[in-house]
Specification:
This protein is an alpha+beta fold and about 160 residues long. The protein has a domain of about 110 residues: START domain (Alpha-D-Glucose-1,6-Bisphosphate, Chain A, domain 4, 2-Layer Sandwich). The chain contains three helices and eight strands; from the N terminus they run E-E-H-H-E-E-E-E-E-E-H. Strands 1-2-8-7-6-5-4-3 form an eight-stranded antiparallel β-sheet. The longest helix is centred in the last third of the chain and has 28 residues.
């Protein structure tokens, strides 16, 4: 059985996405914090909008910037700063590209060679979450499938998984 991604609205302003990954927390964390790995899974392939660049200074106060599009002159950017970085277990960052940007917290909990990932987003208003949730419900499961595929190439998946 494949791992499932759960996308759940917890309140008017909160969204929680959970999934179990077949790999240790160290590898899953690295896939979220190393630009060369992040670029291989973050953009859902079905949208046809590639991730053009990824800059990450993964430390408290460090910044990140992601650019999507087909060419730099017609790209869109997502950016912010890291508020918390606890290797292999927790990341917290801001999404500063608009006034409706969320604060994202991702936790990585190792469970017998697998990782329970919980992504929590807190939006400034109900309307901001309403605008974001459609893309999250469609995009996150595909992104996480792509992360699963990457983990296999990194040696994170177990042989003979069910």
């Amino acid at each position: 059985m494949k791992n499932r991604t759960s996308v759940e609205r917890k309140s008017e302003r909160e969204l929680v996405v959970t999934r179990i990954f077949d790999g240790p927390a160290r590898l899953v964390f690295e896939a979220w914090t190393r630009p060369e790995l992040f670029m291989r899974w973050w953009a859902p392939k079905s949208t046809g909008v590639p991730l053009l660049s990824c800059e990450m200074d993964v430390r408290v106060g460090g910044r990140y910037r992601l650019e999507f599009g087909h060419e730099a002159s017609k790209s869109m950017a997502f950016f912010g700063r890291y508020l918390e970085v606890t290797p292999h277990s927790r990341l917290v960052w801001t999404n500063d590209e608009s006034d409706d940007g969320s604060v994202t917290t991702v936790t990585f909990e190792e469970r017998g060679g697998k990782t329970l990932l919980v992504l929590h987003e807190l939006y400034p208003s109900k309307e901001a979450l309403d605008d974001a949730i459609v893309g999250m419900e469609g995009g996150m499961p595909e992104q996480f499938e792509q992360l699963d595929e990457l983990l296999v190439t990194l040696g994170g998946a177990r042989a003979g998984r069910s």
